[in-house]
Amino acid sequence: MGTLHTKPLEEMLHDDLTNPEFVAGYLQTALEENGMEGFLVALRQVVKVNKGVREVAQELSVGRESLYKSLSENGNPGLSTINNVLNSVGIGIVFTPLPMSSSEDVSET
Question: Which long-range contacts (CB under 8 A, 24 or more apart) does 53-57 make?
Answer without folding.
Answer: 56/85, 56/88, 56/89
